[in-house]
Every structure is written in structure tokens, then in C-alpha cells.
Amino acid sequence: MKVLGVGNAIVDVLCKVDDQFIQDHNLTKGTMKLIDEQEFKKLLLNLKIENTVSGGSVANSIVGMSQLGDHVGFIGKVNSDDLGQKYIEGLKKENVEYFYKIKEENIPTGTCLILITPDSERTMCTFLGIAGQIDEQDIDEQAVKASEITFLEGYLWDEGGPTKAFGKALSFANKSAMSLSDPFCVDRHKSSFLDLVKNKLDIIFSNEKEAMSLIDAKSFDEVIEFGKSLNKLFIITRSDKGSMALDGDDVFETQAKTNLNIVDLTGAGDLFAAGFLHGYTNNKNPHESLKLGTEMASKIIQKIGARLD
After folding, report:
1. What is the pLDDT of residue 301?
2. Domains of the chain
3. Would you say the pTM of this structure is higher than 0.70?
């Protein structure tokens, strides 16, 4: 396999809302908030569902790579409930190998409400369900060994089971990559993320906000210096400022595409990672890989959801 993803197996529920809805429910636009099952049900009462998809950040990247013709797999924990079955069917339909033995659990399959405001920004309310209960028993050692890169999801990192799952995956990985996922995750797990970035990972995906938060940077120049000092691939997306890859002292940059009809930013970072990893695992240089990532991200933000047809 080119890449094996390890992440939250979350069913994405896409809904259009106005700005007032975000305010009324004390949500911060453009961020991800963890909610419990009660809050999830309460929010859902006032929403009209546009679509449901087998999601989760790294799963989106893995599906993107599959659509580009790569042989890929995914590990993520679901229940044997209706949503869990739907989740597996969704991945199979996309030719993604699923390396997890589904069983009945006392916690439901994870769900994410993706609230899309008229400015195309997305605000996520995530009920992790069983997805966040992943542990080392759920990591298929053979699948990790059989993939060129094991791609981990920052959203999944948490003390206890998930930490052990990461540890096991990293110990068998040929090469490891991780997405920092969200400024919320970075702030919550700063010392752990710094340790992973400096000592355990080969490839790091981050946006500008996450990178600055990781090292408490006052300016973006500090992020560049930090990235160079790592001597590994540090990839940073910067919205309309384009993206860059730092590889030791080598700096590669590519411009953002312009004149796009942006309808929904969901999955932009996920599909960027898919394009980059597709390039990287098919022997493209970092500059060409950045361009592929940009192309994928540009396509996805011009449609609703995190799936290219």
C-alpha cells in the first residue's frame, strides 16, 4: 500500500445554517468543538441534513488518494450499528481497504455535524462516539508494515487508548506522517505534539494557525526557522497565500489558485494532504507535490462536502 490512514471514523452530517445559528449555540465559527451525545441530538433537532458521508479528516485524505489511483487503507473504530455499517460501505465504495474488525459496542459510531454558513466557512461539532476509544489492539500491525507511509490524525490524539494506538502504529511504520488537524488540538496537546513533530514523525501537515500555535510564534518567519531546524518534511498551507514545504534548508512554495467559486471549505486540508502524498509516494519532488495538493484542495472547495465525485 502507498498509505495507511489511522484516524477518527466519523460519519459526516452536512447542514447549511446562517450565522445566527452559530451565535445562538455559542459556537466559534471555523473551529471544531467536541460535544456529547445529548448536545449532538439537541443540535440535530434544529437542522436540515444535506448529506451524510463516511468522513473523518484522514479518511477524507485516504479516499482522495484512492480516487487518484493509489492503493490505500484505513484503520478507524466504528460500532456495528447502522451508521457503522454505512461507514464501512462508504469506504468500500471508494476502494479503500478497511483494517478493523467491527463488533457491537456500548457507544455509538462517531458523528460530526458540519455546519456551513453562507460565507462557505465550516464549523464542526463532533461527537466522537466509539471512534475516540481506539487503542493498540485496534492497530493492524501487518497493515502498518505493508504500507509505505502511515498517516495519523491529530484529532485522534488523546491520553489513554489513542496514545497507545499511535505508539504502536509509529513503532511499526516504515515512514510516518501526521496532520496537526486544528488549532484546538494543538493548544490542547502542545507538548505531546511538539514531541511527535520533533522526534517521531517524518512528515507533518499543518496550516499557518496550527504551526504558529505549536511554537507560540509571534511571526511566520519563526515558523519557517523552526521548520528548517526539523530536517524533515514540514508542509504548511496558508489559505490564499498558497502553501510551502520545508525540507531542511530547502523551501518549496506554490501559489493558491485564484478566481475559484468557493462554496464550502470542508476537506480543503484533507484533500491537500491527499494530493501531496499522492505526489510524494509517486516520486514527485516537493514542489510538484505541493501543486498536486493545491489542485485537489481547489477542486474540493468548489463543492459541498469533502468528497470529489
Report:
1. 85
2. 3-8+57-107+129-300 (3.40.1190.20)
3. yes
